[in-house]
């Protein structure tokens, strides 16, 4: 008999066709397997008992990196075949509306790592080694089906030896197959004008790194700047090159064992380090192995492992390396060779590159482990374009534009929510360009034509303007507007398949339905609707976007709200601006309260990078915990407004902070007291809302919950009270996750008509 098997899932770019061919040959089945669009079709002929066993193995076994959602069977007219073969790819079957699953870029596998280190192997020290189970995928794909002509490997014709391996063995039908005779080659260009290739390029690049120089490396999803974390002059040159004064750098280690020499690593963290995504993992430092300029004040090291042959060779020869996205601060990661060559900085000493084109810019992903589970901080290489599978399909495809900070869009089709990679902040023209190109590329590759558009409520966002353009193109007057913090809470609901929750959302800025700036929110979410049940009280701030950077100015605004008559040297100007309503706005933002507290307590005055003041405040609290200091006894006074919304009084709380500072309170104890007070207030409002509504699901989201001390305290208190507590895990709790919430809300609104 002859049966057509249609396999859905991650079945392209992971060696699935060679795997199927192997199963068929073992089972004594004839026929063929081929890619069709984003699925795999298998026409199999043989005895019924053999086909049944073959069917069972298709459902229960997969090659590494593959994931089978389902297998459909259809009996065909019996047709004999001469053996089993891998056929040329076909078109997407007519009537198939299901969107495909495409693997992300995959790290070098164990077999390739062994070949890389074997002097007898013909790919010994070949920096671009890959096979059917590993290598670049989404970063080089132009379309489906996933075949070599549909990738940027089309520019590298296979040599005879690779062509033989392409027909049999573990590189059978590996679309990225190459070697030093036919594939991409390592090239070097020095600031001194020297150019060379292959082993000489590798030697010169390694020498530069050992001498304390800065090197640009062409990676999978873009260029990286690399230097030694052991040499202060190298780290300083890197900071001057990037225009990045303080923000910590991530470090790439040669092995998991070398990570453990300077970091505390739990079994769950080690698993995350070694996972197929190879993300940067935030780990607690246990020794001062590197110079202070690497991590600065941070208690953590962003550690990750090599994911390409080039990375493995360089870290083995040079030891751990800082490897950070090759971009200037606020600009997108560089992917074009010409753009890197055009950099005329005295702090860039050489470039290691190749001529394979990168189509999709992908920064390294960042994650951590919380309560034994991975938590995404930045979702990009290694995870994109894997979808988040929702509990039920959207009636029509949705484009959700996300926000302007940590920009990321979502394309929702059926049950599959495809989040883009992290792009950066949309105030940059280059980031906006990448965002638009990424949207066009993802729509084309996945065959998604959005019918409904969703975006943030903020009228000044670029993402909202783009959503408006897309809505008009579809014939709609305007997109579906989703309030910022509602989208944060909804992102948790989408992840955990909740139908209702009390969303506790703490962040820096979000446009509220009343035209003020929100950011300390308790939102009762039921389906696609929400009700504001609690929040921080309003404080008048001034300075527009500068308020997010100048904590001293923000602290002066809190002083004014508390009735103080003096403050910092700029207090008279701030006071005049507030009194005259010049550039002022009303804020209930938890992020700004953290900034003000850091400045009032004399811990940090400026956000040189996003979150610097809150991080310094958290570090001070961590020191208090380590030294077993008693937290300073701050507390929030709660009131109800005319609508029954519970408001935590920021003015009274700021007055307590100011009095503690004036009394000379221990800064670290005060920082810990601040965190404890916020957690206690969170608990008190959640309990009050549960008494009124019966809601027992709590969703914690927003960028402020990057703070582990606050997150842990809130989580533990609420769990102890019997709440079911949920956090973002597979999308970031910061603005990088709100497009998922927007899409989810939009889909629910469509269901409701």
Describe it.
- Helices cover 33% and strands 22% of the residues.
- Strand 31 (697-701), helix 20 and strand 32 form a beta-alpha-beta unit.
- It folds into 4 domains: 2-86, Alpha-Beta Plaits (2-Layer Sandwich), CATH 3.30.70.100; 187-353, DHBP synthase; 387-482, Nucleotidyltransferase, domain 5 (2-Layer Sandwich); 500-733, ATPase, nucleotide binding domain (Nucleotidyltransferase, domain 5), CATH 3.30.420.
- The mean pLDDT is 95.
- Helix 1 runs antiparallel to helix 2 (48-60), helix 16 packs parallel to helix 18 (650-662) and helix 17 packs across helix 19.
- The protein has 753 residues and is α/β, with parallel strands linked by helices.
- The protein starts with a strand and ends with a helix.
- It is globular.
- The strands form 4 sheets. Strands 6, 7, 8, 9, 10, 11, 12, 13, 14, 15, 16 and 17 form a 12-stranded mixed sheet that branches.
């Amino acid at each position: 008999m002859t049966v057509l098997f249609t396999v859905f899932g991650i079945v392209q770019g992971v060696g699935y066709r060679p795997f199927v061919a192997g199963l068929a040959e073992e089972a004594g089945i004839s026929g063929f397997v081929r890619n069709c669009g984003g699925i795999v079709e298998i026409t199999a002929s043989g005895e019924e008992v053999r086909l049944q066993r073959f069917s069972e193995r298709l459902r229960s076994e997969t090659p590494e990196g593959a994931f089978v959602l389902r297998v459909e069977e259809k009996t065909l007219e019996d047709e004999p075949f001469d053996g089993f073969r891998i056929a040329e790819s076909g078109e997407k079957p007519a009537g198939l509306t299901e969107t495909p699953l495409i693997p992300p870029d995959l790290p070098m596998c164990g077999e390739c790592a062994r070949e890389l280190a074997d002097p007898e192997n013909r790919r010994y020290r070949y920096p671009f080694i890959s096979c059917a189970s590993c290598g670049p995928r989404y970063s080089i794909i132009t379309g489906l089906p996933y075949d070599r002509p549909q990738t940027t490997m089309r520019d590298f014709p296979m040599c005879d030896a690779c062509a033989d391996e392409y027909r049999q063995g573990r590189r059978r039908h590996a679309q990225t197959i190459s070697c030093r005779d036919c594939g991409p080659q390592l090239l070097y260009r020095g600031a001194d004008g020297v150019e060379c290739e292959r082993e000489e390029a590798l030697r010169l690049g390694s020498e530069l790194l050992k001498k304390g120089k800065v090197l640009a490396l062409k990676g999978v999803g873009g260029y990286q700047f690399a230097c030694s974390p052991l040499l202060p002059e190298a780290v300083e040159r890197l900071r001057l090159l990037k225009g990045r004064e303080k923000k910590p750098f991530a470090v790439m280690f040669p092995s998991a064992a070398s990570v453990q020499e300077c970091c505390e690593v739990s079994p769950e963290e080690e698993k995350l380090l070694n996972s197929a995504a190879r993300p940067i993992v935030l780990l607690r430092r246990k020794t001062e192995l590197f110079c202070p300029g690497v991590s600065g004040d941070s208690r953590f090291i962003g550690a990750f492992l090599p994911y390409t042959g080039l990375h493995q060779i360089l870290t083995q020869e040079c030891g751990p390396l800082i490897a950070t996205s090759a971009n200037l601060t606020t600009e997108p990661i560089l992917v074009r060779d010409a753009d890197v060559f055009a950099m005329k900085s005295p702090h860039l000493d050489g470039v290691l590159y190749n001529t394979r084109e990168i189509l999709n810019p992908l920064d390294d992903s960042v994650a951590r482990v919380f309560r034994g589970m991975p938590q995404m901080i930045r979702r990009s290489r290694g995870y994109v374009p894997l979808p988040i599978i929702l509990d039920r399909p959207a009636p029509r495809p949705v484009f959700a534009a996300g926000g302007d900070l940590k920009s990321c869009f979502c394309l929702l089709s059926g049950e599959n929510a495809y989040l883009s990679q992290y792009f950066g902040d949309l105030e940059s023209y280059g980031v906006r360009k990448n965002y638009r190109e990424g949207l066009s590329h993802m729509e084309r590759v996945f065959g998604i034509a959005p019918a409904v558009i969703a975006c943030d409520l903020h009228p000044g966002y670029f993402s909202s303007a783009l959503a408006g353009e897309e809505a008009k193109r579809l014939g709609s007057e305007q997109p579906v507007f989703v309030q910022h913090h509602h989208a944060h809470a909804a992102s948790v609901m989408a992840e955990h398949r909740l139908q209702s929750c009390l969303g506790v959302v703490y962040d820096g800025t979000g446009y509220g339905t009343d035209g003020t700036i929100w950011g300390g929110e308790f939102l009762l979410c039921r389906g696609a609707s929400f009700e504001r049940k609690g929040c921080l009280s309003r404080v008048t701030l001034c300075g527009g976007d500068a308020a997010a950077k100048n904590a001293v100015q923000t602290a002066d605004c809190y002083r004014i709200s508390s009735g103080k008559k003096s403050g910092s040297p700029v207090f008279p100007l701030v006071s005049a601006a507030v009194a005259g309503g010049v550039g002022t706005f009303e804020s209930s933002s938890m992020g700004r309260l953290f900034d003000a507290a850091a400045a009032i307590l004399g811990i940090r005055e400026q956000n040189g990078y996003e979150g610097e003041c809150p991080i310094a405040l958290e570090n001070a609290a961590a020191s208090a915990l380590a030294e077993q200091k008693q937290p300073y006894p701050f507390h929030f006074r709660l009131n109800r407004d005319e609508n029954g919304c519970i408001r935590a009084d920021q003015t009274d709380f700021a007055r307590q902070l100011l009095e503690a500072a004036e009394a000379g309170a221990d800064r670290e104890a005060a920082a810990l007291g601040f965190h404890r007070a916020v957690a206690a207030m969170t608990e008190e409002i959640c309990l009050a809302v549960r008494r009124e509504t019966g809601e027992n699901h709590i969703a914690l989201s927003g960028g402020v919950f990057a703070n582990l001390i606050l997150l842990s305290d809130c989580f533990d208190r609420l769990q102890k009270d019997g709440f079911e507590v949920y956090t973002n895990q597979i999308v970031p709790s910061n603005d990088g996750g709100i497009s998922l919430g927007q899409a989810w809300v939009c889909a629910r609104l469509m269901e409701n008509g």
